[in-house]
Structures are given as C-alpha cells and as structure tokens.
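Archive entry: two folds, one per protein. Generate the first.
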Amino acid sequence: MSVEAAAVAPTTSVPVASSQHGRRSLLHGPVLPVLMGLALPTIGVLVAQTIVGIAETYYVSKLGTDALVGVSVVFPVWMLMTMISAGGLGNGVASAVARALGAGRDRDAEDQVLHAIVLATVMGSIFMLAVWGFGHRLFAELGAQGRALDQARAYSFWLFLSAIPIWIVNLCSAALRGAGNVRVPALVSLAGVVVLVGLSPLLIFGFGAFPGLGIAGAGVAVTAFYSGAAVILVRYLRRAGGAVRLCLRPLRWPLFRDTLSVGLMASISAAQLNLSVILVTSLAGTFGTATLAGYGIGARLDYLFIPVLFGLGSAVLTLVGTAIGAGDVARAKEVARTGTLIGAGFTGAAGVVVTLFPGLWLQIFTHDPQVLAAGSTYLQVVGPFYVATGATFILGFVSQGAKRPGWTTFAGTVRLAVVTLGGWAAVSLWHAGFSGLSAVVAAGQVVAAAISIYVVVRGVIWKA
C-alpha cells in the first residue's frame, strides 16, 4: 500500500481528538476566515523578522564599510539557505503533513516530525560545512577583498554555526503550519525578534566590562537565538497533544519521499527567484552605477512582498493539502481562487501606487536625480504587472499543497529563461536601454503567471 493511501491508527486519544477538531476546521470552516486566521500570524512574524534584518544591518554599518561589505556578500548565501529551508523543503514538510491529516493518516503526520528533524540535520550540516570550507572563495568572487573578506569570514563562521538549528526551527515550524498550528511558530519567532534586537548590539559593541565581538557578535546572536528556539520547539513537539508531535519510531523512506517530492521542486523555485534577480542586477550594472542603484532600490520592493505572500501562501498550502488529502478537490479549488485573488490584489494594488508615484518608495533611500530616474523607469514599467507576481507566487503554494509542484516550477524556469535570454538580447543585441531590460522582467512575470493560471484552470494539478 502506498504512503498516500496507508491508514495507520493513532497512538493516543488526546492527539486524536485534537487532530480531528483541527481537521474539521480546515476542511469545513469558511474559507476566507480560516485562511486569514492561518495567514496573519505568519505574516506578522515575517514582517517583524524583516525589521530585525534592517536593524542588524544598521548596527553593523556602525563598524565601518568593510564590515558592511562583509555582511553584504554573506547575505545572499544566508537568504538562499533560509528560503530553501523555510519555503523549499519546509513547504514539502507542510504539504506532507497537511495531506496526511486530510486523509486521516494521523500517525504518518506525527512521524513526519522526526523525518523533518533528520532532514534538517543533514541539510544544515551540508550548508555549514560548505560555507566554512569554500565560503571565502565565493565571498572573494562577490567582491570582498582584504579586511572586508576577513570580516565576511568571521561573520559567516559564527552565523552558519546556526545552520542546523535554523533548519530544525524552519522544518518543525513547517510541520506545525501543515497541521494548522501557526500560533506556536509565531510565538517562538516573535521571541526571537525581541532577543535579537537587544542581544545583537550588546555582542557587537560590548557592554560594561564585556568587550564587543565586532561583526562576529552579530553571528553569535543569531546562533544563540536559533539554538534556543530549536530546543524549545523540539521539547514542545515531544510533549505536544495536538495533531503533530515528535515520536521516536523507525524512519520510513516513503515519508522522506513524500516530503522531497514537493520540497525539492519548491527549493528549485526559490533558487530561480534569487538567480533571476542576480542576473538582472549584472545586466543593469552595464548601464552604470546610478542605474544599478536605481534597479537595486526598485527590486528591493519585490522582496518586501515576500513576507505577505509567504504568509498567505503557507495558509493556502495547508488548506489545499488538507482538502486534497481528504479527496475534496472542490474545496481545494475554492481555496486556490480565494488565495490567488488576495495575493494578486495585494501586489496589484501596490504596483498601481508605485507606477503612479514611484518617488514614494524611491525617495526613502535616495534623492540623487539619476538614481531616481532609473528607479522610476523600473517601477513604471514593471509595476503594472506586479499583479502577475502575486498570482504566480500563490499558485506555486497551491501546486505544492496539491503535490503537483512540477508545472509551477516549470513556469519559474520559463520566467528565468525569458529574463536571462531576453535581457541579454535587449541589452546586447537590440540596445534597448534600461527600459527595455525592465520590459523583459515584466514579460517574464506575465509568462510565468499565464502558465501557472492555465495549469490550475485546466485542472492539471488537481488530484484527490
């Protein structure tokens, strides 16, 4: 019997009652209230974490330009790991748990927690050892030299000491989200916001008789928080009486396969998103420093959409996965429609505002006329199509919940190809200028959205 169809009797009465109550709410509650109830705590946490990132950058900037460069070259690697753990394999864990609970396979849902911790340990070790062994070469290629490279190495050593704990936190949080429990991950993350905002400056600059650690202090603060958070979450899951808990039972390959079949595709999607930004950044640089700065400021708005879209998408994934597990395709489609309309409406409204008034965003960062001109060009060309960005992002989560991530990953691949090949042609062959490059970015968004919408409307991804 396959892992999709196997039904194993739960082990205790308390988790059964709790999981049945949660399943009824996820399967039969009004879609919009349930969706927003799951989404809003996650959105709030991610917005708070974004603020913490800005605060840490501010603290490090006080150490000088070399420290700021050191953090800047480490940041893309850290973001790649974070996006793969939270939004890649993390989505695979959440999808597997949601589908298992929807199908009444409570024991499979429980066992996914231990499997998630094993995956977290393996993946965290890989990232940690890779950065410790080869990170300095990558940081040098990204432009860090001399003291800036030393700063990057010191920061990355202590930062990636937290690799295993952050993977455990993200995958355990994903398991809880898949079961509809967003409260506990939100509380742990909000505690982290408080801890890091206070702890980082103390470790960086010192306090009283305690000397500051410099840039290493920023990495130590992150490692200290995630190590504590991992212990708290594991202890909670060991004692939990809800739909999922940590049980020490033999590992089963079908459960790993159930997570990886979604998680690997979701990880590819996350990597594609980062790669497309890196490629456009390199092409924008051919037009000069002012254009590069203008694009950088404009594109930063794209990243600010992620906390809202990820929080909403996580809720959509949970509801779609639970419905698919229960064989209720009609409800899965209703959730997909509602979530996509909200996501596309949010990014579309923001796009209209920055298209008409680009200075509202750009002048937060600069008043240089050349930078403002380049940033305005980007936002006025791409802004009207932000609605496509929101739709594509949410439909990716829909496909992951339905265990059909291949098509939306293909849509991301097409977007990357359009941006890469079209951007190169626009700049090198057609001499279309920065406005032409911006138009190619917009075209990539529209094509990806069209493919994603088509496979959902045509029913390609739906399977009970």
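Generate the second and append.
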Amino acid sequence: MTPDLLIQNGTLLDPETGQTRRADILIQNGTIARIGEGLDGGTAPVYDASGRMISSGWMDMHVHLREPGYEYKETIATGCGAAAFGGFTAVACMPNTNPPIHTRDVVEFIIERAATTPVDVYPIACVSKERAGKEMAEMGDLADGGAVAFSDDGSPVQHSGLMRRALEYASMLDKPIINHMEDLTMGPKGHMNEGSVSTRLGVLPVPALSEEAMIARDLLLAEFTGGHLHVAHISTAKSVDLVREAKARGIHVTTEVCTHHFTLTDEEVEKTDFSTHTKMHPPLRTAADVEAMKEGLRDGTIDALCTDHAPHASFEKEVEFIAAPFGIIGLETAWGLIGRELIAPGVLTLAEAVAKLTVAPRRILGLPLPKLAEGEPANLTLFDASTRWTFEDHHIYSKSRNTPFLGYEMTGKAWAIYNKGRFVENFEIQ
C-alpha cells in the first residue's frame, strides 16, 4: 500500500477539456489532498514526474480475464498486473468464462477477487443464459450484483427476437448491450478475413459482410427499442459507415476499436507464415479498413479505444493456424501502439487519445470519471507519448504470451498508476 505520496513536476491533463498545467499532487490516505506548485509532502514518499503527463486513470472496456474456469490462460490477478503495466486503472471483463458470467454469484465473485488488486474490475454479464442465445439472463439481478453491461461476446446474439428483448430490458436498467457483430451463417468456419490474401492462401474466410449485416440488424433494433447498442471491436470500413450514419440519425449507438485493428492488416498472416498470433476475432482486415478505423477515430464515430485482451496458453497457440483459437493479449502494448499509430502521425491529439481511454469507456458503461481534483480519490495514470521502446518478452505481465508485437518499436509509455491507495511504478523500461 502507498496511502501517502507526493508526485512532483508532472503535467496534469484534463481529458474532458484537453487543458494542461504543471503541478504537484499530494496524496494522503489515498485521496488527493492538494494540487499546486512546490508542495511539501512531509514524510510522504516522493515521485519525480518531470517530463510526464498525469491524467485520470485509463480504462480498457473490453478484456478477457478468463477467471473463473480458465485460470491456466489468465487470472484476475495476472490480468490486472498486465493492465497496471499498460497504464490502466480499470478494466471491464467479458463473460466467456466457465461458468459464464450469467448469474449474480459469478459477478460478485469477480468483484471480490479483484478487490485486492490496484485495478478496478467491472464485470460484463451475459445477455443469455450459458451464452447459448436461447433464454435471456436475469439482467436485473446481474445489474444489482454489479454488472455494468450485457454481452455474449464471442457468441453473437443470432436470434433477432432475443436481441430486441435484451435491448428493451437493458434500457430499463440504463445499461448497454454489447454484441459480437457477426452473422455466423455467412462464415461459420472461417479463420481470417475474406479477400485476396485468404484466396491466395486457401484459408476459409470470415467475410466483412458478416459483421456489417449484424450491425445493420442491430442498429434497426436499437432504433426501434431506443436501447443503447455498443458495437464491440469494430473492424471494417462499411461498419464504420453504418455507425456514422446511425449516429447522424440519432440512434443510441457507441463503438470501440482494438489497437490491432488500426495497426495490422490481413497481409500479416502471409508475412508471418501463418503465425497464430495474427489470428483474432474479428480478423485482421485490409489496409483500407485500417484507414477507416483511423478516420472513424478522427471524426468521433469510434468512441473508445480498447484491446480485446484475449490470453491463450502457449500449447493452444502453438498449433496449425486453422486449429488455433482466436485472440491476442493487448494490455501491455496498447499505449505504445496508440502513440505510434495515432498520436505521432496526427490521427488523434494526445488529449483526444486519452479521452478515448478515460471519458468514453466510462460514459458508455455509466461509470463516474475519476477527477483530478482536491478531495477526490486518487485514480491516476502517469505516462508520456514520446518515449520509444521495443516490446520484448520480459514486458509481458499476462499469464499468456500470445502477441504479434514482440520486437515492435513502441512510441509512448505508461510509467505508473495510482489507484485504491496503491502506487504501481513501471520499472521495466528505462
């Protein structure tokens, strides 16, 4: 525990306004006691934040912590360790666990297990019982237990009637429905994006249309019900267009993009000779789709940045491409990729990028934004957007190591977080 801390010489960034100022922050008993210049912390430990920014703590609203049931891939503790390394003080975890997060006791189990970590964990509960897409889960009870949203992530809600009812019920609870946007009838056994690369390689594809058709259906349902639809891990240019047009029509829709979907293309599968670390769901798309993700971020169509952190054990990934599970880890590399692909080229300003990691995810999930103000609980991320470093194996805090980004040069790093009375400093990259 680090209840008292004096952070000196930092640059405070307000993600809501984009305003910055130089100041010290004195934390006492986990609360921001004073903000100003030349503060005296008495006997409190001192951290020199010269050259570093300080914002309210970041949140990744789409991660897989695997516990309960798949602790050999990841646990809540190791996932939170990876989050802290990446600069995140909060994550929202998806329900494809075993048992799935479809009953209140599982929601409460996750919250209890996360209580001792420096990262806040918000469970996303199932839309349907067992994620089977047949019978709606007890949404009211799940929300009372602490669920912040509903999703069958990894298993699209194929039944239109169920999706309609879910949107109606969730709207009464003021919670979003997060759908895995894929019509499985269009590519039920696909392994990579449908296009010239999949044709050349002879790999069964996942068509972009399967995502776009599901989004179009769900937008109509959201318009009809008035419910809040959140599009998970958007990945195609047409999908961005659909969301953009829906927002213009006043439909209550939000969306997120994963770091790998604005960084890599389907050509990576061929370049890496079928590395299973290039297999994710939705799959890597084309260069045009990557540019559309960036444009969607630039014009505000895409609200939030996330990772879809999806750990898998080495023995699961070290198989033939078509036999491997989908997914990669992403918490440790998120900010370095955001700095490299979005901030450095001018797609987003620093303040805009931070807002998509702080304001947007919490607004979507109906959570309060931590405030950089005296008297508020200290919930902070310390970072820069300029440090260049190479991501290596020893930087992985996750229990799994399935990433395509080993050896990548990153731009910008998270130096530390402070949350729940604990200061976690990143010593690994100097």
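Annotation attached to the second fold: The domain at 57-365 is CATH 3.20.20.140 (TIM Barrel). The CA atoms of residues 2 and 422 lie 5 Å apart.
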